[in-house]
From TrEMBL:
Organism listed in the record: Succinatimonas hippei (strain DSM 22608 / JCM 16073 / KCTC 15190 / YIT 12066)
Protein name, UniProt field: Xylose transport system permease protein XylH
Record-linked InterPro entries: ABC_transp_permease
Gene Ontology CC annotation, any one: plasma membrane
Keyword hit for Transcription: no
Length: 387
């Protein structure tokens, strides 16, 4: 019995996500609104919430490193999207040149904010709040208050197409790729656990470890079946997987990742240990600017337009995803996997309430309450685990 309680405590967020998904599915079916887990709707959930995952990963590094957030990411998305629209649609520039320009602009914006935060030591809240207004204004100036569309088809296919191109081949190829991913996941987590044991690191209890593997495998197989019954694997899902795996590796297996956690845990101690804390703090905002630019490219492709209102509220979704995912507001605590689960949680909440036809004002109210409740439950469960 104690092992069961231990599993529930250690995986409270994951279990909460599953419970919410099941409750939504029951409610949606009972009210004859279809199904949340129809193949087409599942693909829509991935497309609609791709920007949340991308921004949440970048926001997580800001929170881990300094306990601060970036309030400007929505405005950066709008500005970079505006630049992409002007270059690709109005100027008919080469799409690769436009993509490179947008990414460079994102990095420069991140460097601009990172300089004031890391080296001048202006509070991040003030700098990014100023950035939120500054970059939104610049987006309005670039677009002259107008919406630009449509984008070139050769650009859209990099973010809105599917693998394989033929729907007839989608089922078999998608299942094969899903099984390969399942095998790769099992090998990776087993290798990681055995490596930690070999180095005498602390590992989670075996039952909890197996439980988590089973949940992930069920999620992978279920997702693969739903995608296989639709159009196949969305290209955007491959981009998301690459971003999540890369940043998970950086956070868990690199010196920079360890230094980032040390910075968030105790900046003075990290500095005395030889960590260039200013530079690490600077890099977190450069990275946030880069990922904001990636999110902008994804968003303009999804909407097939660049609008001055794009990105409104995106920073709140990203911040909410991180805190729901277990990040600490004080810094030094958080995982990429947790941020992704938090982003999926927000996405399921948005999609489920939209299908049920709940008023937008009530949706915001519910999301605020769920955010607070999820964080409270997660914090209390972790305290009990430590006790």
């Amino acid at each position: 019995m104690s092992q069961i309680f231990d599993i529930l405590k250690r995986n409270s967020l994951l279990i909460a996500l599953v419970v919410v998904m099941v409750l939504f599915e029951i409610t949606i079916r009972a009210t004859n609104h279809g199904s949340m887990f129809s193949p087409s709707n599942f693909t829509n959930i991935i497309s609609q919430n791709s920007y949340v995952i991308i921004l949440a990963v970048g926001m997580l590094f800001c929170i881990i490193g300094c306990g601060n957030v970036d309030l400007s990411v929505g405005s950066i998305v709008a500005l970079v999207g505006a630049i992409a629209g002007v270059m690709m649609v109005n100027w008919e520039s080469n799409i690769y040149l436009a993509i490179a320009t947008c990414l460079i602009v994102g990095v420069l914006i991140g460097a601009w904010q990172g300089f004031w935060i890391a080296y001048v030591r202006i509070p991040a809240f003030i700098v990014t709040l100023a950035g939120m207004m500054l970059f939104r204004g610049m987006a309005l100036l670039v677009l002259d208050g107008l919406t630009i569309s449509p984008f070139p088809p050769e650009y859209l296919r990099y973010f809105t197409s599917f693998i394989p191109k033929s729907r007839a081949d989608a089922f078999g190829l998608t299942l094969i790729i899903t099984l390969i991913l399942c095998a790769g996941y099992i090998i990776a987590v087993l290798y990681s656990r055995f490596n930690k044991i070999k180095k005498h690191y602390e590992v989670e209890p075996f039952t909890s470890f197996i439980f988590k593997i089973v949940i992930v495998l069920v999620a992978l197989l279920g997702s693969g079946l739903l995608l296989a019954n639709n159009k196949g694997i969305p290209v955007i899902l491959i981009l998301l997987a690459a971003i999540v795996m890369f940043y998970s590796f950086v956070a868990n297996n690199t010196v920079s990742g360890r230094r980032l956690y040390a910075l968030g845990g105790n900046e003075k101690a990290a500095k005395l240990s030889g960590v260039n804390t200013n530079f690490m703090l600077f890099l977190t905002y450069v990275n946030m600017g880069f990922l904001s630019a990636v999110a902008a490219l994804v968003c303009v492709a999804r909407f097939n337009s660049a609008a001055p209102t794009e990105g409104n509220g995106y920073e709140l979704d990203a911040i909410g995803a991180c805190f729901i995912g277990g990040a600490s507001a004080y810094g030094g605590v958080g995982t990429v996997g947790g941020a992704v689960i938090g982003a999926v949680f927000m996405g399921v909440l948005n999609n489920g309430m939209s299908i049920l036809g709940i008023d937008a004002n009530w949706q915001k109210t519910v999301k605020g309450m769920v955010l607070l409740l999820a964080v409270v439950i997660d914090v209390l469960s972790k305290k009990r685990v430590k006790a």
